[in-house]
Amino acid sequence: MSVDSRNAVSHLKIRVYYEDTDAGGVVYYANYLKYLERARTEWLRNLGIDQTALASTEKRLFVVRNVEIQYRRPARLDDELTIHTQVEHWGRASIRFGQRAMRGDELLCQAVVTVCCVEATSFRPVDLGPTIRTLLK
Q: How many domains does the chain have?
């Protein structure tokens, strides 16, 4: 995973495996959501945030609140994809990400994903907390 510090875009390389495809050898549409999730998780990890530790020490979890996704072109078996992730906006208890799945320079899929920070036991929204806020600034 790499991050372009000039505009805070992270890049995660993902290989398409047989298990990711449908009978036609095309990536099954729901698997893009898995790729996007991995990229957001690695984005957090790259910032030094371990989600397991965040849940146990600060009692905070991230849950997906909303996804808007557009599929442009199919990815196929053995393709190498790059998932680009960028924070578009953050508020008191949420972060909105812009994400794209690319094969080289070709846009395959783009999404806007909003995650909400919730308290680990009640699942009620809570502020992002000092650790996340400091890293986002």
A: 1
Question: Is 22 labeled as catalytic in the residue annotation?
Answer: yes
Interatomic CA distance for residues 126 and 92, integer angstroms: 8
Residue-number span of the structural domain to which 31 is assigned:
2-136
The CATH number covering residue 89 comes to: 3.10.129.10
> pTM of the prediction?
0.89
Q: How far apart are CA 2 and CA 11, in angstroms?
A: 5
> Residue 13 pLDDT more than 70?
yes
For 57-80, letters b (16+ CB in 10 Å) and e give: ebebbbeebeeeeeeeebbeeebe
Q: Please tell me which residue in 4, 22, 50, 127 is annotated as part of the active site.
A: 22
